[in-house]
User: What shape does this take?
Amino acid sequence: TPDTAAPYLAGLNEAQREAVLMTDGAVLVLAGAGTGKTRVLTTRLAHILATGLAWPSQILAVTFTNKAAREMQERIGALVGGVVEGMPWLGTFHAIAAKILRRHAELAGLKSNFTILDADDQIRLIKQLLQAEGVDEKRWPARMIHAQIDRWKNKGLGPDQVPGGEAHDLAGGKGLDIYRQYQERLRVLNAVDFGDLLLLTTRLFQDHPDVLADYHRKFRYVLVDEYQDTNTAQYLWLRLLAQGSKNICCVGDDDQSIYGWRGAEVGNILRFESDFPGAKIIRLERNYRSTPNILGAASGLIATNEDRLGKTLWTEGDAGEKIRVRGLWDGEEEARFVAEKIETLHRQGQSLDTMAILVRASSQMREFEERFVTTAIPYRVIGGPRFYERMEIRDALAYLRVIQSPDDDLAFERIVNKPKRGLGDATLQALHAAARLEGVSLTAAAGALVQTDELKPRARNALAALLDDFARWRQAAEVLPHPELTETVLDESGYTEMFQMDRSPEAPGRLDNLKELVRAMEAFENLGGFLEHVSLVMENEQSAEGEKVSIMTLHGAKGLEFDTVFLPGWEEGLFPSQRTLDESGLKGLEEERRLAYVGITRAKRRAIITHASNRRLYNQWQSALPSRFLEEIPDAHVEKESAPGLYASYSTHDPFRGAGHAPSTYSSPGWARLRENVAQGRYARSPVVDSVAELVATNDPAAANAFAKGMRVFHQK
Ligand code: ATP
Ligand code: MG
Assistant: This one.
């Protein structure tokens, strides 16, 4: 009999204890945020080890991220009071499946040193196949085919299992054939993609019952966190493995299912009972994480969803602070507001480690990052690089650097074949050799090389075209304001198009980031000034040590908790995203609402939601409406700071920022307001104001530029 007095059980409530101690059979813990699901899972694991029910190597434990796996490993050690030697089968679906596949590679038609291809390689492969098949790549870009293959794999469908009709016109009817050839190519290359890891191990188990039987004997216990976000392929894999011991425990929350767009199936929760007859469903209703106000706000919000199982949640203690909702003028003011708030809380003794900013779209991060750099607030971006470190941003900057300084070899090399223009390794080697020989930069060497017949005609033409482009852009740089120059370069180089054709889930975010880059430039007088700013920001190397505010996406925040949570950008079109608003049906909108629920429930003590009335989206200023989700939070739990009146807010906003650049800003609210203010004599009169007032009234680009320059002089005084 288990030792029910074990120290690690102390403090658990009855339902939690039951979920920990019921080690035999199938258990599904279905419960809301912060009710201790992860804690139950960890304690259960500790319990199994502590009572000798299994060795660490006999437990299969699946977490959603590698980070979560590491944390679980540490917590188990703490619970059983000692170091638990490695848990070889604790990790993500992909990590575990890769490990299994390596052990039996030959049976799956692979060698054990197979490589796992990244998305770029996969797409390149598909592209070759499309070309060989003569498929029109304009109509059927490789990335789109890739995304479809990925969707099939998420559903557990190999080429021969895709239902007839589904692939009907994909790639002009050749979609399935491409999928089949793609798989064959992968085998020849001794390679797999991510989807294969699950698909191939599942097939391995089906084709080789002896292998499966081995794992059935091996895995005495199966544990799964964040169960609501498993996709069909993962579910089938799991079910096969768990059929052995039948000791499986999954924990999840249907209200936190936020990966539907990646193929997750909440339906797996419903299948559980039929696939594991006699499964015990345990509900946890007490939330230990948040104050009643936070929990009430989140519960009220999620109650709007129709598609949910429904549950009760309660928490003890002081009602706590209400959720604060604050409207601000624009994104910059929002960042300023959040930074000030963080400084105040910090002064009051709250550690920066206990604060987080959770954004809907990663392009929202830049404004916060820059504010933090300016005000010297240490921060970390979790789950991704910092804004200026992102691939697409570095690429765009590389183009600009080559325009600015033709001899910047590193920048040139970065983009010479991005997007692909047939300037591969061979060309680059020839370029390097020539540059070394002559002691000149790559660009200079390229200029000489295209005059000779050293390169193959195709490469020579492509290189000459690129050099022409740069020459033209350098000329344009003389006359075009730099934000427009950047747009031109990104368009003409084909860089933007590359992501427009890209149907992968990351592509829209990358396009947003590029637009955000253009927007960021507007605060600077010229390209040189901007590039210098970037290098300064980048130099601001964040030390590994010390407290830091966390910035991450809402998706990345799943399972985590913080004392104070900032939730910026709650506006229609941003959150819920425009994409979900455009689509018919409630599915997408309900998933956005679950994301909002995840956001609020990360907070233990304090949640501050902000929205701006002007947001620069898709490259133009838009008046933004507060998110509908704000209306759905019950009034009793909210304290709304009324959106400040235009001018009240305006007084803290620099009216001259960005006033003189792209024509789009002339119709921006900021510009209109400026004109109005000048017209109504709202600024203290001065010779400068007097003279610019006239320029403002004319409203033409040249005057506006002069105006902006004038104001900068004005500011320096
Ligand atoms: P999420 O749905 O967000 O993943 P969860 O259900 O996994 O949440 P946990 O992260 O396990 O919840 O727990 C939330 C917080 O409540 C943690 O700080 C945890 O330590 C605490 N907690 C859980 N159970 C108890 C308990 N019985 N007594 C005290 N604190 C608890
Ligand atoms: Mg959890």
